[in-house]
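Hey team,

Filing this mostly as a record. A colleague (T.K.) asked me to run one chain through the structure pipeline before their review meeting, and I want the input and output archived in the tracker in case anyone asks later how it was produced. No errors, nothing strange. Just documentation.

Input sequence:
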Amino acid sequence: MKLTHYEMVFAKILIKNSLATFDQVRECIELFQKQKKGSKPKSLAKIFYWKGYLDKKKLKKAESATRRALRLMEDIAYAKLAVKQGYVSEQQVSQCFNIQKAGNYKISLGEIFLLKDFLKEEQHLSLLQQVREQNHQESFTLKDLFWEASENSSKGNTEQKKKPFAKIQFGETAMRRLLVTSEQVEECLQLQEKMRQKGIYKKLGEVMLERNYITEVHVQQIISAIHVGKSEDRLIESYVIEEKLGEGAMGVVYKARMEGKNSPPIALKVLRPYIAETQDSLKRFIQEAKKAIDLDHPNIVRAFEVGVSGDYYYYTMEYVEGKTVKALLEEQEKLEIERVISISLDVAKALEYAASKNLIHRDVKPDNIIVETSGRAKLCDLGIAKDLHQDMSLTQTGIVVGTPYYLSPEIAKGAEDIDHRTDLYSLGATMYRMVTGRVPFEGKTATSVMVKHLTTPPTPPKKYRPELSDGLNRIILKLLEKDRKKRFQTATELIEEMEMLQ
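Output structure:
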């Protein structure tokens, strides 16, 4: 009996994740192949379980990973066929892969093509049938599995063939190395497509260079990483990355574990290389990160370690089971008023504790507030944000450090005498977003938003949420006072008033 696509992928996953040895895989595959056609065959997974090589937990993990891998393989084959047959462009494929990734792969690539009107229903069904027929016809032997493993182990000594979807691979590698954001890749792909329509053909790397998003050195690093095949799960030494939790201008946060068995999950934040370009900025970052490690409060995400691995600076935090306020707001336009009060009180208590330690966050926003499954809110990046937001100007890569929608007027104008009242303003802007479903000030550019923070009075949130109490409406507007002397002067004052609303 030959191995199907499923068994082949299942076996690879066992080896890749060290769930079984080569010898165990070889033995179980041989048992699988020796089964007689007349009898009811056991699946390869059941043979591993029957032999005692996998317990129920590991078996479930391997089967789940196999299903995910097969879906992704089917989507890749589907995308290649769609491009080959002229239904979609590579840029459209890249755009839809990004959408799929943002949704944690809960929807197939074909369904996204349909939702975006890139394909007609009959084209989608035709592609799907071709992919599945191709997968059904393919079969493998034990020799295929170990030949491929042998090839992979020696591919560093042979010249790799040019891979299809090269520009998608270049963009993905640039993002994995944290040199660019997904938004910048999308922008460059769109520019590349516009130039192609005008008869101008440029590589994605050339477009990124022209936009000053990367340097010549970065291009060589990306090309080298593609050829070497460096895995994202080994970006930081001693940590195995499991999944991406979030991404921002400053860096990317991953769920990760330390190498070794039974290590609990942690949140690993890896900074983009441009953040720490000088010795002074590195020194300040390390000093501030070490202060954060000493913080201990139920409404603050604990920081554990700060370090450097290769080209990357990183720090680790406790992994919190829950969702950021940003994620909650993506699920529903605005939050229940009682929930807003609860979250805001928790954050205010975190800021009260920070003020007692002479720490200023400077980047309080929905992305940095995590709500546990129990309902308790925790503030993250406290102690780190102060140093990283010293300079509110544009970086060399064109990214504004800090989120303009929640910045205080004093930070927007570059004042040096920043104190804890700046965090109260940002909390007020976050509360405004939670109750109204919109930010206090909008604009086409970061600069236009910052100017409004300095000059434009906010529209009372009660106008957008009539059921909002006068008390909460007044508290939010007081937090958003442009003159910090008119705001709450301490988090303690805010807590006292907020508690009266409960």
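Quick notes for T.K.: Residues 56-84 form the longest helix (29 residues). The radius of gyration is 26 Å.
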